Amino acid sequence: MNFLSDIRDSFKKAVLSIFAIEILDNEILINETRKEFIGDFTFVIFPLVKALKKSPVEIGSQIGAWLVENNEDIVAYETVQGFLNLSLNDTFWQRVFDKIQKTPHYGYAPANGKKVLVEFSSPNTNKPLHLGHIRNILLGWSCSKILKANGYEVIRAQVINDRGIAICKSMLAWQKFGNGATPTSANIKGDHFVGDYYVLFEKEFVREYEGFQFTEMGIAVYEKNKKEGQDLTSFFKEYKNTYFNTYSALGAEAKAMLIAWEAKDPEVTALWKKMNSWVYEGFDQTYQMLGVSFDALYYESDTYILGKKAVEDGLAKGVFYQQEDGSVWVNLEDVGMDRKIVLRSDGTSVYITQDIGTAQQRYADHGVEKMVYTVADEQDYHFKVLFEICKRFNEPFAQGLYHLSYGMVDLPTGRMKSREGTVVDADDLMSEVIQEARNMSADRGEITALSHEEQEDILRKIGLAALKFFIIKVQPKKRMIFDPKESVDMQGQTGPYVQNAYVRIQSVKRKAGNDILSKDSQYTTVNEYEKTLIGHLMLFPQIIKDAGEQYDPSGLANYAYNLAKDYHRFYHEVRILNAESEDAKIFRAKLSDQVGSVLETTFDLLGIEMPERM
What we know:
The protein is of the alpha/beta class.
C-alpha cells in the first residue's frame, strides 16, 4: 500500500514535462521532511543534477512549481539545496487516514504462497536457557512473526543439542554425586537442576586439575612441554584441555560415557533420556513464559547421522574429495575460504556435515524456499561454508539461506561463563525485570485498586516488555549490554514507555464511550500533531516490509517508540475529549484508536503483550 504513489507519479510527469526525460521508480527518493523545515515530504533532487546539468535549486523550483499547478494535493513547495519539500493539503491527510481505517489487518501483506523456516533457540540440554538464549529467541520469534506478516507461511524450528561431551559431564556428575536426587525432590526446575550438575562437574574437574599440577607427574609434564620462559601457572592455564583429554580421571569417565552412549548402552541411554526429560520440562516452562512455541523439533542425537549420506553424494558429484587417511574435505579456496573437513578419518561427522544433512531433511519435510538460522556471530564463518556447500550441491533451497547473525549480550558486570556458573539464567532474568516493574508500580500506585491476579498479569506484561524491547531495539549485529533497571524506565526508549502510550489511548477510549468510534466526522482541518501521527501510520506497511527483507526487528521497535513519543506529544498538546467541536473529538478519538491498534500490532510482531492499564 503506497499512499504516495500519486505524488510519485506526478513527480515523474513533472520531470518528463519540464525536462523531456523519463525516470524510473527506483530513481525517485522520497522521505518525510525533517522537522526543522517546512513541508510534509521531501524529494531528493541530486540524482537529476548530472543528467540535466542544472543546479539542484533550479531543478527543484521548476518541479515544485509544476506540482503545485498540476496536483491538487500539493499546496506549496520549498527548495533547500538539493531537496524539494512539499506541503500537502488537509484533504490528502483525511483521505489517507480514511483508507487506513478501512483496511483490514492494516500493514500486513497478503499470502505470497512461499514457505520459510526460521530456526532459533537450539539449546544444549546440559544447562538452562540464559541471557544469550533470550536474545536469540526474541530475534528468531520476532522475525518469524514479521515474515508471516509479509505473506510467508512460517515454520518455527529448533535443533536441540542433546548429545556430546558436555551432556555427558552433567550425566556423570549426577551419577557420581546426585544420590538419586530429582528436580521434584530438590524442588528445582528441571533444566536448572541438570545445569547445577554441569557446574558441579567443572568444579570437581578444576579441583582434580589443581591437585595434578603439583604431583610428580604434573611437574614432569610441565618440564617436558613448557615453552621457553613459561612459568608453572601460565603453562597449566593453557594445558587444561590437553589434561582433560590425556590425564584426567573425570575426563576419561566422561569420554567413556560418550562412547557408551554412541554404542547405545542401555544403562547410559536410560540415564540420558531421564535427564533430558527433566531439561525439556524446564525449557517448556521458560518458552511458555516468553510466549514462544515451535512447529518442528530436530534433535542432534538424530541429525548427527544425516550428513553421512551427504558426504557420499558430495564425493560422487565431485564437491568433496578424500584424503589417503580416509577423511573427506571440501576445497573452498576459489571463493576466498579455506579447505574444510566434512568427515573425519574415523568416519565420524563434524558440525558442518550434520548441518548439510539437516538442511536437506528440512527441505524434504517442509519444502521451504528459505531457511533462516538465528545463531550468534561467532559462527559467521561456519554458515558461509555451509551455504557455499549447499550451492555446490545445487540444492533447491540454496539461494534462500540466511544467517541471522547477532552480537553477544553482556551485563553491566561483564561477560558470563556457563561452566563457572556465572551465567544469568533466563528465568532469573525474567523474575528480575518483573520485580523491577513491581518496584516501579509501587512508586506510582496506579493499579492498586485492581485484584492481585490482575496486578500480577500487568506486572508480567510490563516486565517482559521491558526485557524484550530493550534487546530487540538494538540492531542484531551489534553487541549489547542489558541493564534490567534501565529497561523499565518509563521515560526512556523502553517497552513500558510504548505501553504507556497504548494504555493512555485505552483510557481515552473508555472515557469517550464505545459509540464514538462508529460515528462519522466532518472534521476538515488537520493540525501538525495529527499530520505527524497519520504520517507515522502511512509508513507502517513499509516498516513491516523492510523488517522482513532485512530480517531485523529493531526497525519496528524504533518505529513503535517514535509513534508512541509523538502520541504522547499529541495527547499533551491537543484537546481530544474536550475538543473545540464534536467532529474534532470524533476524529481525534478515531486517530487515537488507530495509533493504539498499530502500536499493539507492532508489539505483537515483536512478541510483546500490551496491558490495558499500568
